[in-house]
Each structure stands twice: as C-alpha cells, then as structure tokens.
Specification:
alpha+beta; three-stranded antiparallel beta sheet; 4 helices; about 20% strand
Length: about 130
C-alpha cells in the first residue's frame, strides 16, 4: 500500500494494491469512492492493463513531503475535500495495520462491496 497521483495535482491519495514479483495488480482503482476527486484508473494485473482507466496513476510507497504539502493546500481550499482526505488518512492507517498479516490482508479483501471482491474480479477477467 502507499499513495497514488493522477498527475492533475501535486498531492496524493492513499491506496492499496497487490504486488507480486515487483508487478502491480490493482483491481480496485477502476471504481474510486470519490470519482470527482480521484477519476477511475486502469485495471492492472501483473502490470498489464486489462482495462484502461480515465487517467493513469503514479504509484509511490511513501508520501513525499511535496505530496503532503499538496494535500494540505487542497484541504485549505475545499472543506469537502479536507473531509475526504481525513477519511482517507484514517483508512490508510487501518489498511496498513491489516496489511501487516496474511489474515489481515484476507480481511481487507473480504471487506470489498459485492461485485468488487477479488474473486469477482477473477471471474470477470477470466
């Protein structure tokens, strides 16, 4: 897990993905919870774009100082965005804790809404 940026602003959003052998699988970025702030991205399987998104995201494991400052600037300009970013910060901490154990990873994946669970995407991809 880490941070993503779509290149349209200087901040970043918390995000989790699966990585194996240095290649990303990201099944959740295609349905963002706040598409007005975070447009849908590509469906990635082992770095292969299975379905393109509206934007291409940059992935970073650590939040840079510049991105943290961008988040703070955006929060000062828009109260709703500030609330979304606070919620995402809380989610980031929760997911970081879950990602620390295999049981936690399974719990995280099982929390996805119907149609968005790992098994659902595997059936979709074929």
């Amino acid at each position: 897990m880490g941070w993503i940026n779509d290149g349209t602003w200087d901040g970043a959003a918390s995000h989790a993905w699966i990585e194996f052998g240095g290649k990303k699988t990201d099944i959740s970025l295609t349905r963002t919870s706040h598409p007005q702030h975070h447009p849908p991205g590509a469906l990635l399987v082992l770095d292969h774009v299975v379905r393109p998104g509206r934007v291409s995201y940059q992935y970073d494991r650590h939040l840079s100082e510049a991105a943290a400052a961008g988040i703070e600037r955006a929060a000062q300009l828009d109260e709703k965005l500030r609330m979304v970013n606070e919620m995402k910060q809380q989610q980031h901490a929760t997911i970081a804790e879950l990602a620390s154990t295999p049981a936690g990873v399974k719990q995280y994946l099982d929390m996805a809404p119907p149609g968005g669970r790992y098994e659902d995407w595997v059936r979709t991809i074929g």
